[in-house]
Amino acid sequence: MAATKILVCSVIFAFSMSSFAQETTDRIELGSSITAGSNSSWQSPSGDFAFGFYLLANGQFLAGIWFDNIPEKTLVWSANRDDPAQIGSTVNLTLNGQLVLTHSNGTEIFIGNRTSRASSAMMKNKGNLVLLDSSSKIIWRSFDSPTDTILLGQVLPMGTKLYSNANGAIDYSTGQYRLEIQMDGNLVLSAFRFGGRGYWNSVTLGNQNVSLIFNQSTAFMYVVNETRIIYSMNRTEVSTTIEDYYHRATITDRGNLQQWIYNKRGGNQWTLVWRAITEPCTVDSVCGAFGFCTSPDNNEVTCKCLTGYSPLDPNNPSRGCYPDVIVDFCDANSSTSDPTIEEYNNTDFLNDVFADLSRFPTTDVNECKKAVLDDCFCLAGVWSDSRCMKKRMPLMNARRSNPSTNNMVAFIKVPKMENQEQHKKDSPSWVVLLAVFLSCSILALIFGIAVVYNHPLTQPYIHGQPSAKPKSVEINLKAFSFQELREATNDFKSRIGRGGFSTVYNGVLTLDGEEVEVAVKQLEKVMEQGDKDFLTEVQVIGLTHHKNLVRLIGFCNEHKHRLLVYELMKNGTLSSFLFADENRSWDHRVEIVFGIARGLLYLHEECEPQIIHCDIKPQNVLLDNNCKAKIADFGLAKLLKKDQTRTSTVVRGTMGYMAPEWLKNVPVTAKVDVYSFGVLLLEIIFCRRHVELHRVTEELHQVDEGTQVEDMILVDWVLCCVNAGNLRSIVSHDLEVLGDFKRFETMTMIGLWCICSNPTLRPSMKKVIQMLEGTVEVGVAPEVDAQIS
């Protein structure tokens, strides 16, 4: 006990003295600046750390702090991780005492406390950038707003959060993992973007005034409650010679908190000395949805896709996977409704954040396998300890890791593949094939001559008559050959966009004697149906006609090529417009909201058959030459028959815009589009992305101090602002909005109505338009009531 008290006292003494420690340095004076690309920086007196522009692999820059005295310049903090700067951007300690990052296009980001004015700045030997007032008192420091790393001598008080990078040293933007010192006293690692409650914690729940301390003397990390160490992160001595090693602890893009050391005297790389998670595959969502994690030596993680799925991003397997074939196993008429089972030995779906469909006891592994196969709503199952657990979609946290998952068997349901041997046995002989080929060739030749002879462009040459007057592109739905579209897009080189299942190219086609710019969407791994089903969907899309929908001009259905040809929207996506640096007119934004709402109303209630879009987001709203909003990419939406109001399908859409019912394996309605529209509406009127950490964090001071808010999600932030009555102060800089504040307030409440977790409480798009027009009264949304109560 005495030894513990001595250690605690040494910890407290060390940190108390550090606040009074003085360093010999030339202060950074007002008017000082750094330019991206100039190789200049503000160094600490020891030369161990530097602040400036950190060059990324893609040629962009982060205004940050790094270890500067080693070959591997390791970034430990940045001010603009989600908004990289271009060459020519500057950081200025302005004459009025503000530390400002100015992008090359003129956009400014304030670093530090905007309400206080500094007289100077210092780069400390511990890697801490500080701003000082005229009496040399610290008014802001980078240690108080960490990104993904904690350094020796740093203290993280209760409520502090670290966020992982998105992809190691490639993408430093905010990732999906968080280390948080919760207000209940627990230190927790969680996959916050997936709603995870935590997969590791310090078991210090119930303590007050908790801090995480990276001790300067011992290089141990402690969880401290006032004057008592309540948890020691490290269990063995890391290094007895602190002076000889650099230390850092970082939450990685794989969700692990790890401590690293670097030998100052001759080292050539960082060495791992401690980690919170010893079995890395136990980290929530480490391989994403439908991913499969393996780590034979419990060291490095390898992510693959489960059978029947392909990676979303082959260059980053941890992003997860998507199904090779969209399957409804409950549809008896589907050619893929008769599945097979793939077995994975020593495999489990660990810490699944979604509830099991069901559990039942059985000592027979084959009985569990049959139960999974026979349940059309079930995609997978696990047999373990004489229990069978049937899993709902999406499949998360599939992993094989030694030794804890031994004697478990996982079953994955996949569409039955065609029996190649049977196909070979039943296939016709080469003689028959040759005869068929020759017959088809002759018929094709005759058909081609007839088409050419009767084509309008050949009539002047055949009959000596002028060509017919060009017809409107909107009237025709033309079938193009793959070669035509290849030539129109310059061999598919002019790419203008890419999604999960398609790539879009810019092209020029000659239509009825006129050259027309078009957008050619090449579908990938989506349309596995036969020609008849594809043509049926194309026909349905071609029948839609509304001023707020992107018009389909034609298609290609040749061999395995599935392409759609649309009118070109020269002003690009709503995302590019909304989150660009130019001023966005309030009236224009309001008109865009109305346009999207009218387009969705048409899809839901006015076209035949009715259509659910399933993926409403800024990237799927395009702007024409007059900047009018048009909804795009509804060609792959689930179609509804006239007497059908619901559809059961696999998860579609984009995280952040997806309605909660997608993840509950229940029938979905057009209300999923209403939810997505609600998120998009809030993005449009606030000019904020649905996830935008640094912008939200800058304005938390406008919310009541006693209010707790999830600061990375736009809808949660808006709810917090509404409850705190801060809407007017949030838009105080926008005179246009202030002049129409009543409408802004009403549209905010409409957005909150649309994102109700209960789909039956969400308004229809018809009612949304009535509320926008003011013909229907807008009450207080239930989500607001829940927050207030």
Structural commentary:
This protein is α+β, with helices and mostly antiparallel strands and 789 residues long. It folds into five domains: 24-145, Orthogonal Prism (Agglutinin, subunit A), CATH 2.90.10.10; 146-277, Orthogonal Prism (Agglutinin, subunit A); 282-418, Hepatocyte Growth Factor; 473-568, 2-Layer Sandwich (Phosphorylase Kinase, domain 1); 578-788, Transferase(Phosphotransferase) domain 1 (Transferase(Phosphotransferase), domain 1, Orthogonal Bundle), CATH 1.10.510.10. Helices cover 23% and strands 26% of the residues. Strands 36-40-41-39-38-37 form a six-stranded mixed beta sheet, with helices on both faces. A five-stranded antiparallel beta sheet has the order 29-35-32-33-31, with helices on one face. It has a four-stranded antiparallel beta sheet with strand order 1-10-11-12, with no helix packed on it. Helix 12 (714-724) crosses helix 17 (782-788). The longest helix has 25 residues, at 430-454. The two termini are 46 Å apart.
Q: Can you tell me the CATH class of the largest domain?
A: Mainly Alpha
Rough outline: globular
Strand content: 25-35%
Helix content: 10-25%
Number of strands: 43
CATH topology of the largest domain, which one?
A: Transferase(Phosphotransferase), domain 1
> What value does the Rg take, in angstroms?
30 Å
What is the rounded distance between the termini?
46 Å
> Widest sheet: strand order?
36-40-41-39-38-37
The unreliable regions are 1-24, 418-436, 455-476, 637-651, 693-711
Q: Can you give keywords for this protein?
A:
43 strands, Agglutinin, subunit A, Hepatocyte Growth Factor, signal, carbohydrate binding, 23% helix, five-stranded antiparallel sheet, six-stranded mixed sheet, alpha+beta
